[in-house]
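Input:
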Amino acid sequence: MIGDRGLLGAGIGLTLAVTTGFFAVQDARGGDGDAQARSALTMIAPAAAGGGYDLAAREYQQAVRGDGIVGNVQVVNVPGAGGTIGLGQLVRFEGDATTLMVTGAAMVGGVEMGGGSARLTDVTPIARLADDYEVIAVPTDSPWATLDDFVADWQEDPTIPIGGGSAGSVDHLVSGQLAAAAGIDPADLHYTPHAGGGELTLSLLSEASGTVPVGVSGYNDFRDLIDGGRLRALAVVAPERLDGVDAPTVAEEGYAGVDLVNWRGVVAPPGISDAERAELLAITEEMFGTDSWGQAIERNRWDDSFTGPDEFADFIAGEEVRTRGLLTDLGIL
Amino acid sequence: MDQLTSLAGGFGDVLTPMNLLWVVVGAFLGTAVGVMPGLGSAMAVALLLPMTFTLDPLAALIMFSGIYFGGLFGDSTAGILMNTPGNSTAIATTFEGHAMARGGRAPQALATSAIGAFTGSILATVLVVFFAPTMADLATRFGPGEYFALALFAFVAISTVVSESPLRGVAALVFGLALALVGTDQSTGTARFTFDVPALFDGISIVVITVAVLAVGEVLHVAGRHGRSGGTELIPSRGRPWLSGREFRRALPAWLRGAGIGIPFGIIPAGGAEVPTFLSYTTEKQLDRRKEEPEFGTGAIEGVAGPEAAGNATAGSAMGALLALGLPTSATAALLLATFQQYGMQPGPLLFERNGEIVWALLAALFLAAIVLLVLNLPFAPLWAKLLMLPQSYLYAGITVFASLGVYATGASQTDLVLMCALGLLAFVMRRNDVPLAPVLIAVILGPLAEYSLRDAMSNSGNDPLTLVSSPITIGLYSLLALGVAWTVYRRLRPAVPATLAEAREQEDADATEGADSRS
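Output:
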């Protein structure tokens, strides 16, 4: 009996320890405001664990930790509303030079679609890190062998549904760009959002009616199915052909206006000093030079697109305008 | 029998002291987070993901597979003991499980649940080993039309058994559908019922709703009855803490049926493991009605065995969909996908060729995890049941603390805590007025699936309603549904039987008794 009680007590103790452990991680951020970024850095991943932002944050964490660039790095997930909840939180950390947030193309769309009052131009840009390219793909047994084949049918019947990620995502915007380049009013686009890359590929492969015959998504989502011969890439939305994909670029096919990429970068809270900004940039530059980051780029099939704060700020401002225009054309705004 | 050779190789890789340790660690952690309301295996995997950078890929995946199954082993424990299920996958188990606990059979209910989870896991994993590619092909037969038919079928099948009063049941269903509508519309990006609160843009998490409606609502209900005679006291278990041979023989077919219902659901992305657990509960309840002495409502062992096996079977075959298609059909599977990608592996048609060794080792680890979890959980059953000897006030205060911790840990959002309290209060009011709570959760789970699949089917086919009945799967499901409804209507309208449902039931009971008498 006493043994039982003891075990039970141990069980309760363990459960308590596990929960408090979770809290320690969740609340790792904040506290010692005077700490230097070199000793303790917090990375906000403005999405749930397992997503694209989370992956970038954890690869960053791994690179700076493994090479001893920063003493202690924590990743904190702040999911919600296309990343804009994380953005809102970052704005509230005004002056905190020990926090970085991963950002990207989807956040620009999320902000435009009304996610909170914070904007990407409210925070301090540090660097653009890497890009993901979009691929337009069809099942291997599709009658469309080239992008032109598809566009010809599409112009006849603009109700052909195109599948991709969530409404307002880069996949959606690229579909809108393609429609415009093909002379179809983007407002007439029949775009079907999917909860994730897996759902989209299943919808493409499925023989059931009511599924999509063509999809737009990041190369990573399609890679293995293209290699495995179940999907055919019609074109890649990239400045140059991609290694290992036997498909032309959209520009080669004559649709030069289709050029959005799924970029990722890091930003810091507003109101930090120039010296603090320079320190965060230095950390990021050192991180960029590590082997583990190089491997991360290769492993995730990213394209390295490193640019410093000033150029990055201009880029973000330009993307905001472009995204707003596209969302308006698509009838979302 | 290539698979057996490969699997043997997998066991060879896993059966090292270090890897076995990871299985046990994963199983233990998974059970722990499963027991706590609000925390689930997805949460545990997410938090451990960064720590596994230093591990080799196999060790990380082995540990995660332990957590994956462990969460489903643990989630019914609190539900059975205190009527506060830790996760939405344990809701269906809770109905009869808690009834058993109230009848002083808590250890038996816990043991039935553990063996059910084990049976479901093992059977599903066996199927994955031999038929992963075939299972992947099955998934490609499904489109939005099929998902809609499935959602409709589940709605009708489940609603007919969980609600006694049709009007109150429908009210609860509508309330659940309203909750499910909150958030950004997936198809158009339009915000619905978000009141410009950014925290509501992604909708209200199913974790928050489950914990609020079931756990917090239960705590308030118990507190509201404190000091009155109403039978809310928890009854410490009595008698032998093990399953008798008779109980085992009754649970066995339910375990197998549950696994059979659960396995197909893991392959298709149709609402996770909750739907099959409810369908299994429905099946067992229908079978029970035909018995001479229906036991549902008073703690029928089948009502625990079936849903629990179904939940784990779904998780097991979801692993097949993940490996063969790269399709994550649950939150935890999505994280396992991320883990694979972190190590440069991409689940999908080529995974077995490219990373065969690690895949077979992972499958072997799943078998081991199920066995370790059974060994871990069976002896714990009587021990957990001892929790009921604690004073109620401490027990329910503890539940409240853990529920709040779990909800906050999931999204680090204060809005979630406010929502949890508000919904908990609402659930309390509903219980006081005899409005059933299960339809709320069924609506929250099935509502979005039905809505989006119908809209996708319509928009992808140029609004052609015939898309909905264009395949053998849809036609089959609708025929089954029509037959079921026709049978129910026929039974209620049979001239010999009085018109109202209550009287009809009494009549049936009387028939049953007569039958029993004439035989004796």
